[in-house]
Predict the structure of DUF1471 domain-containing protein.
Amino acid sequence: MKKIIIFSAIIFSAASIAATEVTSSTPLPAGKDKIGSVSYSNPNASTSEIIQGLSDQTDKMGGTYFKITSLEVASNSRGTAIVYK
């Protein structure tokens, strides 16, 4: 029973870790490698929804950090980012 509880806790904590956005106030840690890029689009999405979408795409790619390279909030909201691991 203890093994099941511990395993569940590990799975839950790993699933809740989201990719971190790289900004001027939170720079990329040393030693991280670029592994690709992601994009997200959703008509009429807010800035925070676009950033969350980019974070989710980064997680799916296996990245831990992403740096936004473009962001447009308009009738066809979209964004792109470089992914690092």
Observations:
- Residues 19-84 form a domain with the Dodecin subunit-like fold (CATH 3.30.1660.10).
- The chain is about 35% helix and 30% strand.
